[in-house]
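step=predict obj=Peptidase n=236
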Amino acid sequence: MMRLACVPLGAVLAACGSAPVGPGYYRVERGDTVTKIARANRESVQSIVRWNNLANPDSIEVGQVLRVAPPGAKATAGAPVRTAPGSGRAVSGPSSGGGTSAASRATPDAVAPANGISLIWPTTGQLVHGFDGVTYKGIDIANAAGTPIVAAAPGTVVYAGNGLRGYGNLLIVKHEGDFLTAYAHNQTLLVKEGERVAQGQEIAEMGDTDNDRIALHFELRYGGRSIDPTRYLPSR
């Protein structure tokens, strides 16, 4: 099991899902800034911010996939568009060479993945906290202790443990298409790392480990970037 105390969840999710990226895209590595990425790909900071609808260009995450070439254009020949997966802590750093434009104030989740994912609700209960993509990168669903938690989509368990401070008993499941889901604060984990799970299979029981209430904290990531899971869940 990975030892993860004090490691941000975003870095763990990035390490668990590191599929290669295509031409014109770049996966953020430790120590990167928007300025550094823009310079390496011979683009302006403003363009990187606009193409990716970055709400805060001074804070990007390890494993996050960014567009580094104009939409509809091929990657510039010779530009160092690397595809090596990132590792380590979430990155943040000053971004010089551009002010805050209207695009940089756009909703962090404004660009949806080209290929979607079909999710089911991971548990029953009341939605008590929503996603905002900045200070809260998932949703919380509250119910009684022991309420079944199920896999929102088929995939493989890539983390099962309690080594990440603030998330209690945590499961991370890797899905097709560079998607990951995370299930935190569980009372009991019912699956192990490396286990293949079916959509709707019970994988945990709701609890309050490392939390002040009984609830599931559920996150969805695409290319290392947090996205609003309710956009891919059926209405209820």
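step=describe
The chain is about 10% helix and 25% strand.
step=end
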